[in-house]
Request: fold
Amino acid sequence: MLTPATALNAVPRGLRNPLLTEYGQIVGNFMEGRWAAAELSGGRFCEIVYSILDGHTKGRYPTTPSKPRNFVDACRRLESNTGVPRSFKILIPRLLPALYEIRNNRNVGHVGGDVDPDFMDSNAVVSMASWIMAELIRVFHGVSTDEAQQLVDSLVERTTPLVWVSGGVRRVLNPKLSLQDQTLALLCSCSGTTKRGDLLRWTDCKNHTYYKKLLRTMHRERLIEFDETKDEITILPPGAKEASRLIGTL
Reply:
């Protein structure tokens, strides 16, 4: 069974561990509203992914990630590779320079960019990095895109200033948020699935019948996946997008 512990285990540890760490930094910084830090991590993430693609094509991986002298040209050279999946040859190599550009020329890695680090750019970094992670998992493990995305969503526990965490307790610090928004914020702060009983405790919702009805509605709207047989909830990409919007309003 594919789990966060076994994800991308075909990639040598010297590349796999930095990749998972950097992706965790991107998501964590974004959820905490640290836009510049999230975008800086996006640049390092690009260099690690490039090292993985280049090593996969050559049949020998470097022991550690490295930065090509000319990143854009190096990515273009990947397009001439044969015998690799199209996403390793075209899609990811063309996406990496755009992601790298945010770090280099949007007033993040260097001064003098035409915009300051903000939610919009950071959201783009998270979205592109998440897609790349899912595609790496899909190819290396031969799973569906849905399975790959679910695993990516469980790789890191996302922290957010909206949610206070202490031991097994989580609290949304803005009680004026709707119960639906509180639920999304809580789910976004967790990795993997969450029990309905935990959400009831964390939201202080006493009306169990109403809350179950709300979860069913959110399930129909594809904000969450509500498995009533296991009484477990998982946030879906549209729900995560809504939660990100809440962070962007801080």
Notes: Residues 106-116 have pLDDT under 50 and may be disordered. Residues 10 and 140 are 7 Å apart (CA to CA). Residues 35-58 form the longest helix (24 residues).
